[in-house]
TrEMBL record:
This is DUF2934 domain-containing protein. It comes from Bradyrhizobium canariense. The lineage of its organism: Bacteria, Pseudomonadati, Pseudomonadota, Alphaproteobacteria, Hyphomicrobiales. It comes from the Bacteria. InterPro entries: DUF2934.
Amino acid sequence: MHLMAELERLEHQLELARRALAMISDGATAARLLAFGNDIGARIERLKAECLEGATRRRAYQLWEKAGRPCGRDREFWLRAEREVLGGSDDLSGG
């Protein structure tokens, strides 16, 4: 998955920045590196949110299909999918 690969890359960059920050004594360089790390951290949080939304969307669609594609219950399926995804449920049987 493209988002997961990007997330792993950014997390690796953040770890490298943290390690480098511990070895830098120049204040200006440390400040720039800290700002870089903060930027990476914000990007990581956005990607995590996108991954969560995508997983929830896919699971809600599965639940909706399994229920026979009923009209007007989209929120119900979304909330159930969100609980499953956040709870780490691997149960795709719908039971």
